[in-house]
Amino acid sequence: MAATTESVKADAAEAPLLNVRNMILGSLVYIVFYAWVRWYEGVYGWSAGLDSFAPEFETYWMNFLYIEFVLEVVTAGILWGYLWKSRDRKVMSITPREELRRHFTHWTWLVMYAWAIYYGASYFTEQDGTWHQTIVRDTDFTPSHIIEFYLSYPIYIITGGAAFLYAKTRLPTYQKGLPLQYLVAVVGPFMILPNVGLNEWGHTFWFMEELFVAPLHYGFVFFGWAALGVMGVVNIEVQAIAKLLKKDLA
Questions:
Q1: Which of 6, 15, 111, 141 is a good FRET partner for 67, with 20 to 30 A between their CA atoms?
Q2: What is the pLDDT of residues 207-217, one digit of tens each?
Q3: CA distances from 120 to 54, 166, 219, 224, 250 (A)
Q4: Tens digit of pLDDT for each residue in 100-119?
Q5: Strand, coil or helix: 136
Q6: Is 177 left (phi over 0), alpha (psi -120 to 50) or beta?
Q7: How far apart are CA 57 and CA 242, in angstroms?
Q8: How far is residue 31's CA from residue 243's CA, in Å, rounded to a whole number?
Q9: What φ, ψ does residue 240 adopt, rounded to 5°?
Q10: CATH fold of the domain at 19-249
Q11: What is the dihedral of CA 227, 231, 233, 234, to 10 degrees?
């Protein structure tokens, strides 16, 4: 009984399986950052973003584009590189409790991916249609596009890639092969970015109204819906966690 009591005390002293603080802070990073982005767009979109030949457009928007390119490449390199470099080479030997804790950390990554997908593939994408139904574009790099295509899309790609790398390098569940559900959930939305090239080519050569039902936009819908593949990832997670809980109880 004494040994059992000490074991219970040791378990109670361990860190909680789900780090709620990290999940809240991570969510706030996306919310606060995109609130600032929306403020910037609201202020400088109208005052400096209507004429791409004006000097202020170069100052407030093209420089914004150049900076985000550099930061995105650097962030992806550091984050993905760190997750791969620090991978657990003995991942199949971890304890059930440690594996369960890592699953909950993985869920935190999935929540961050959900936030990033919402802002990129929903909020700013819908806003872009409204912008171009109101303002005639004179360049492919409109304020709306600089935020939507070249900021919010890379951010959810970086986040989704990080979630996948975390699962692949730290969870035994994902060690065999490449889960199709994860590939659909991450690679599908990633393909929206190459589809941007087709979209810009079409709008350059065809003077067409900015309608979401236009055939030129079908690729955005198809690849955007691929994000629903995350439900397959959740199914994998639920099954893995259920097995671990049974093992722990046994």
A1: 111
A2: 666 666 677 77
A3: 28, 22, 15, 10, 44
A4: 999 999 999 999 999 999 99
A5: coil
A6: left
A7: 54
A8: 34
A9: -65, -45
A10: Glutathione S-transferase Yfyf (Class Pi); Chain A, domain 2 (1.20.1050)
A11: 140
